[in-house]
From TrEMBL:
It comes from Wallemia mellicola. It holds the Pfam family HEM4. It comes from the Eukaryota. GO terms for cellular component: cytosol. This is Tetrapyrrole biosynthesis, uroporphyrinogen III synthase.
Length: 257
């Protein structure tokens, strides 16, 4: 059964779904570019003592940290500062940083990824810790929601938001053309990862009259799909590839009974 995943290809989703008996096809809906890398580089070089933690909620932000860290030979160490993340994919990306950059600039402790699947859950996790951080550096993109940082600030945590990447949405017409080229008329599942992605994916699906079930990653994506009058057939509790596969299997089992 073919599954369309509207994101850049990652091994965790490909492997989990393939093992689950699905044929995967990845179609990106965003183009990302790094921004303000010189400022991040200067911050990494000079400001480790200014923060109790670093907050990273996307793999693109991890990539920006990697780009800014390359070539820095600094006596200041970030390895003792905890990095908080959402979901296992971002956590895994953070944990592998030590293999590609100066280990002193990579985190030793990556926290929250297994316990939290969205920003609200991560905020609760951070605030529940015995040693709650007081000053957090938050690496964001141009479309990163402010809800997570607002919750933390409401509880007395000082947040420094630094934009390190920007995203450009691929037009719905381009996605529709790609779906035609890939001959996706036999698609059983479509997996949508963000509200902004839903805005361009749903029109393409409707125009092509694809008879596809929808899986949604995260509650905000689900709400957006419902606002667009689309039925969501599977939503994992966390943005985890194996949980997604399990939820899709459950839905497929119901269909067969």
């Amino acid at each position: 059964m073919r599954v369309l995943l509207f994101k850049e290809e990652t091994s965790n989703y490909k492997d989990a779904l393939t093992e689950g008996g699905y044929d995967t096809l990845f179609i990106p809906v965003l183009r990302s570019i790094s921004v303000d890398i010189p400022r991040l580089r200067e911050l990494i070089h000079k400001s480790a003592h200014d923060y109790d933690a670093v907050l990273v909620t996307s793999q693109r932000a991890v990539q920006a940290w990697k780009e800014a860290s390359i070539g820095i030979d600094s006596p200041i160490s970030w390895s003792n500062i905890p990095f908080y993340s959402v979901g296992p994919s971002t956590s895994n990306a953070l944990q592998t940083l030590k293999d590609t950059i100066n280990p002193d600039l990579a985190p030793r402790d990556v926290l929250g990824g297994e316990e939290s699947g969205n920003g609200n859950q991560l905020a609760e996790y951070i605030l529940s810790r015995e040693e709650k951080p007081r000053r957090i550096l938050y690496l964001v993109g141009d479309k990163t929601a402010s809800e997570l940082s607002n919750i933390l600030q409401d509880h007395g945590v000082e947040i420094t938001r630094l934009q390190v990447y920007a995203t450009q949405q691929i037009a719905s017409e381009e996605i529709e053309t790609t779906l035609k080229q890939k001959e996706c008329t036999d698609t059983v599942w479509s997996v949508i990862f963000s509200p902004s992605g839903a805005n361009v994916i749903v029109p393409a699906i409707k125009n092509l009259k694809l008879d596809t079930k929808l899986a949604s990653i995260g509650p905000t994506t689900t709400r957006r799909l419902q606002e667009m009058h689309m039925n969501v057939d599977a939503m994992p509790a966390r943005p985890d590839a194996r949980q997604l596969t399990e939820e899709m299997h459950k839905s497929d089992t119901v269909d067969r009974t």
